[in-house]
Amino acid sequence: MNIIFDTQSLYYLPQYIPVYKELCRNGIKSKFVFYKNSHEHLIQRVIDDYDLEHIWVNEQQQSIAYYENEKADWVFFANSFCYLDRLHKVSKSAQLGHGIGPKSSYYTKSSQAMTVRFVEGQYRLNRLKSMYPNDEFVDVGFCKLDPIFNKEKIDGTLELTNFDNKKQTILYAPTFYPSSLELFPENWPEHFGDYNILIKPHYFSISKERYKKHLKLLDHWSTYPNVYLAKVEDYSLVPFLDKADLLISDASSALFEFALLNKPVIWCDFLKLRWGYKGIFSYRFKKRMDQDYGEYANVAIHAKKYKNLKKLVEQQLAEPESLANIRLSLSEKLAGKMDGKASNRIVQYLMKNK
């Protein structure tokens, strides 16, 4: 059996790699298609680390030509692909999303039907089936966290030589939009001097020109001795989730992924909205978020303003089990089975349907 992973962005890899490793354990060969961009040198490190068989392309026109020639059994995608009609003449397609956040795009990206989409949990499966009744969806769970649940060595170990082992560790992982990042004070690491601070912004915040205000703030925060700022090469959120005792986030999939580990989460309700999402245009923000946004919100303690944050952090770290039952009750809805076998279920499906 021949498998290809279409890797248009570096941050797809934390979802792909557990499946790739499971394929290797089953003696199945796979290849990666990487798209040329400004971070080729970082991708090359990943290629070298895993000894990945791969090719480079400039755009989807090149990748589809490659797929037509290769005639693989399966091609994996983390998002939509323009040339599915051509691909399906030679290969089957599998969609494996890279996040489980509260944005409506989780559902709309299935509007272009692939052979199968692997999803997390019966609830999401049922919703997708009701929206796209003629398409194939399979509940496998959330393979990105398989390494943590299986207590495996976590790839991308962080170099935290400046951290104090006697202090608890906070992870701040804002998304790129809508984000709380620009509403944090310039000196906020001083306010949390009693803690180690990991900052893992969204890939876009540290890689795209339109978010240069984010990068300026992030670079300033990285100068504080109790802060570790993720670099672009720290493409995986998994090592950060593993190290942290508490997460601070906003409308990010990181918030839900951390909650699945049953550790305390603080959700920032204060967001920097563009003018086109305010006032009479607030419907645009609501449209961007999933219909279950309100229920998902129960998985965390909410900070209405930045000034409330310090007290909430202290409370949650003192009583980390206070929302444990709610987190566990929502886990199945958010991600399905959390037994470390999601990657295995994916590979078993591929083998049965080659």
TrEMBL record:
Tagged with keyword Transferase: yes
SUPFAM superfamilies from the UniProt entry: UDP-Glycosyltransferase/glycogen phosphorylase
Gene Ontology annotations for the cellular component aspect, listed alphabetically: membrane
GO terms assigned for molecular function: CDP-glycerol glycerophosphotransferase activity
Keywords: Transferase
Origin superkingdom: Bacteria
The keyword Transferase is annotated on this UniProt entry: yes
One Pfam family of this chain: Glyphos_transf
Protein name: CDP-glycerol glycerophosphotransferase family protein
InterPro entries, sorted: Glycerophosphate_synth (IPR007554), TagF_C (IPR043148)
Species annotation: Pseudoalteromonas distincta
